[in-house]
Write a structure and sequence with these properties.
Shape: globular
Helix content: 40-55%
Structural class: alpha/beta
Distance between the termini: 23 Å
Number of domains: 1
Oligomer: single chain
Number of helices: 5
């Protein structure tokens, strides 16, 4: 199982980053490869429209995706899954590898979302992208414990 968390914008180094790293390290303890990377955020406003910003960020995300990797877009419009459903899908998505795409302040480009292998909602509410990374990392850890039958998820 190989996982990648690919986000827009350089992550902050505050409390949310510490929590994110804690969950990523927990997943890695199960000998699961987790790569964390990011692409530059294009600043909104000024001379670029929101749509143009999302398109440029989408190009960068696509370029950062390794070959033979399933792209899982995170979007409030995506499918809401239980933790057990997410674990079952994670097992399929991550063979050979899966990349979870976390958008920046404007979200993901609609064309990128449509072209993804799957679209998942962490919440129907909008989450700041730093918080979305934490929720994703915790759910990845929870899914792995479900798959490995390790008590945590109850």
């Amino acid at each position: 199982m190989r996982l990648r968390i690919l986000s827009v914008g350089k992550p902050d180094r505050g409390r949310l980053a510490e929590l994110f790293e804690d969950y990523v390290e927990r997943v890695r303890r199960f000998t699961i490869e987790v790569e964390v990377s990011w692409v530059a955020e294009v600043r909104a406003g000024g001379k670029f429209s929101d749509a143009h910003v999302r398109e440029r960020e989408a190009r960068a995300l696509r370029a950062a995706l390794p070959d033979r990797t399933r792209a899982i877009a995170l979007s409030p419009e995506g499918q809401c899954l239980t933790s057990e459903q997410f674990a079952e899908r994670l097992a399929r998505w991550s063979t050979p590898s899966a990349a979870f795409l976390v958008g920046g302040p404007l979200g993901l480009d609609p064309a990128l979302v449509r072209g993804a292998d799957a679209v998942v909602s962490l919440s129907t509410m909008t989450l700041p992208h730093e918080l979305a990374r934490v929720v994703l990392a915790e759910q990845l850890y929870r899914a792995v414990t479900i798959l490995k039958r390790v008590p945590y998820h109850k």
